[in-house]
Automatic annotation (TrEMBL):
Name of the molecule in the record: Metal-binding protein
Record-linked InterPro entries: DUF2227_metal-bd
Organism: Coleofasciculus chthonoplastes PCC 7420
Keywords: Membrane, Transmembrane, Transmembrane helix
Domain of life: Bacteria
Chain segments carrying region Disordered: 120-141
Transmembrane annotation, as ranges: 48-72, 92-110
Length: 141
């Protein structure tokens, strides 16, 4: 679900179900197989930051709605402290998650590049080399 191929109308994109609309702006900006979508570390980092920005935006909207319609028992500062504490307390887990996502992306990118190279090699190998058989044009007037 977090594949480098989220920049296409692909299986990973379809797996997002009714939330796939989140990835439409990403698809418009990212060129397929670019360093920004398939690059080592960079591609995964960009996808995490992109999804994180959506999560923050949607959570912010949810918090505003909660604040407008009911009394919120905590302040924004308390929320910020709780999130910071969670990030620090589970730092090893976050690193392991990133490594797992990156390994999946690396395997995908290597698979893409090797299969493309192999297909290109096979096409070049199958092309028969033709001898030049150009005819001399004669003018018919």
């Amino acid at each position: 679900m977090f594949s480098p191929d989220l920049d296409l109308y692909s299986r990973p994109f379809k797996r997002w179900g009714w939330l796939r609309w989140i990835w439409l702006p990403y698809q418009k900006v990212m060129r397929h197989r670019s360093i920004f979508s398939h690059g080592f570390i960079l591609g995964t980092t960009i996808r995490i930051l992109y999804l994180g920005s959506w999560i923050i935006a949607l959570a912010g909207i949810g918090l505003v709605i909660m604040y407008l319609f009911q009394a919120v028992p905590w302040t924004g500062e308390e929320l910020k402290q709780q999130i910071t504490r969670s990030l620090l307390d589970y730092q090893a887990h976050w690193i392991a998650l990133f490594i797992g996502l990156e390994l999946g992306a690396i395997i995908h990118s290597i698979s893409d590049w090797t299969s493309s190279t192999y297909k290109r090699y096979q096409r070049q190998k199958q092309k028969p080399r033709r001898k030049s058989t150009k005819r001399k044009r004669t003018s018919r007037r």
